[in-house]
Amino acid sequence: MSTEVEPGTTIDDRYRIEYLLGSGGMADVYCATDLQLDREVAIKLLYRRFAQDAEFVERFRREASAAAGLQHQHVVSVYDRGQWDGTYYIVMEYLQGRTLKAIINEYGAIDSDWSIEMTEQILRAARFAHRRKVIHRDFKPHNVIVDDDGLATVTDFGIARAGASDMTQTGSIMGTAQYLSPEQAQGHSVSEQSDLYSIGVILYEMVTGQVPFDGESAVTIALKHVSEAPTPPCQINPAISPQLQAVIMRALAKDPAQRFATADEFIDALERARSGAMPAQAPPIAAPAGVGESTAIGMSGHTLAAGAAGGAATVGYANRGDEDDGPSRRWWLFAGGAVVAVALLVLLLLLLKPDQATVPSVVGSEESTAQSVLARAGFKTDSVVKKSDSPKGQVVGQDPPGGEQADKGSTITLTVSDGPVSVFVPSVAGLSSSQAQRKLRNAGFTVRTRKQSSDTVPSGDSIETLPPEGTPVDRGSTVTLVVSSGKETVEVPPVVGQNVDDARATLRGAGFGVSVTTEESSSAEGTVLRQDPGAGTKATKGATVAIVVAKKQATTKVPNTVGEDEASAISDIQSAGFTVSVDRVDVAQESQDGTVVSQNPSGGSAPTGSTVTIGVGRYRPPPAGGARLRSWSR
């Protein structure tokens, strides 16, 4: 059913999935990390079964387009959209907080002042969208995220459309039944008043703890929106003032023309109700066409007949008692009066119409600078603050936006950064480097790592964070994660050729232990002959370096074997503890053949195991006729 993306998966080489935030009717929403900008985002992935459905893809595309054009403190920001792995995705601002629906479910009926404040924030989002000809069409508490500071943000423009156009599928409606306006329930075109009706339902639910209409099916609920009057809120919650009840009941009028005309009018009525004044009443308007007759309700392709409440409306006119002079004597009076009235109206509008000017763009400026710029242009200003990644005091949004025309003297609402949200640095004790980095990023931090040796923490595990755990830090700021590189390694110093005592001091000074073995050598006694590990290599601090030290060689008396035969001489020398080297020496006497004629050393003492060289005689007889040849030579 869902897209089932595993944590750690990277979408389009940019967005790394961290964990699932929630699922809806058409998409899963994940928390992800934007690897290019190093920030947390929410990424909505359309279910693959819908990716081949042109209507759902169009709805998904429309959500991205509608929300991307609405940069406002109470509207979720959309950053990116695209296709991946056979489906579509939208990348949005990651919002910390709970849905308004979850808050209502937890607390039930909510205090009127808080409910009014929350409704006004939602209405500001609606006002901003409506000024840009965008109708949300699905306002409900599930689509409102409330953060810890009480800031409401409207999400999910999935069925928003520009203007008051009909849905593409004739005879069907889209939206959540409990929050549908009567015209949506009937499959008719929608307008700003349709959104205001849905917001009225949200307000009703906040102050009473229940929706005005509910039932076993969406069709039943839609029918009630069209034909039944809601139970007055005071009957459910007596704490609701008559003034607030009047506002709610006007917002829930069946006829759009009897509701508030704009979000601003709704907000003004709420402010009067908050102060205890009765809101202005809607002008009396004739019943809409079709009341008292059969009304068609379009619901997912089905059509139901529903008898509307009440009979046909009758409008009575008082008889003035004058005789009817007939149309022949009155028409010119009506015509002349109409011309005069129109002329006066046009003149009045021209006289009263305020001058307009282009609104300067001040986003990115300091609040005081923005106020001065707008004042010079002839506008008033009102500021609201919002936590953001921008510096405190910087303007991050304005309504109306720069470049639009507005009446001189009208108010420009500035959204001013209150600085990033403070978040406590979490504990990373016992976590691997990757686990700790994920935990810190999920908490809203940028992570930088640093290696540090440790005798107690295994290599690759987390040692600590800087700032330490529990420190309140601005969300989005950088936290340094200190990761163990294992025990410290040190370069082994060279000690070959040094005296053993000096070598010990050198190695211990570098942080190593020392083990010593001796070996007989012709080198000076106590001189280091070899070391392991060798000089210049890295070894763990505290490890042992083995050195081999020269000791004095033992000596043995050398037997003199001159005059002995070769075999006896070799035996005698080897028995004394020496090795033998034999040289062949030419001798003139045949009696010396095979006899030792020389030896080195020939006596005295020599190092045990050293080599004794003996010269063994080798007789070669002279060639035949040698005497005669010598005589001839004379």
Describe the overall structure:
By secondary structure, this protein is of the alpha+beta class. The protein has 6 domains: 84 residues, Phosphorylase Kinase, domain 1, CATH 3.30.200; 185 residues, Transferase(Phosphotransferase) domain 1 (Transferase(Phosphotransferase), domain 1); 61 residues, Trypsin Inhibitor V, Chain A (2-Layer Sandwich); 62 residues, 2-Layer Sandwich (Trypsin Inhibitor V, Chain A), CATH 3.30.10.20; 63 residues, Trypsin Inhibitor V, Chain A, CATH 3.30.10.20; 65 residues, 2-Layer Sandwich (Trypsin Inhibitor V, Chain A), CATH 3.30.10.20. 28% of the residues lie in helices and 27% in strands. It contains 15 helices and 33 strands. The strands form 12 sheets. It has a 6-stranded antiparallel sheet with strand order 1-2-3-4-6-5. β5 and β6 form a beta hairpin. α3 runs antiparallel to α5 and α3 packs antiparallel against α9. The radius of gyration is 49 Å and the shape is rod-shaped. The C terminus is likely disordered.
CATH homologous group name of the largest domain: Transferase(Phosphotransferase) domain 1
Percent in strands: 25-35%
Helix/strand/pairing class, anyone?
alpha+beta
Strand order of the largest sheet: 1-2-3-4-6-5
Q: Report mean pLDDT, rounded to a whole number.
A: 81
Cα-atom radius of gyration? 49 Å
Overall geometry: rod-shaped
User: What is the share of helical residues?
Assistant: 25-40%
The largest sheet is:
6 strands, antiparallel
Please, how many domains? 6
First-to-last CA distance: 125 Å
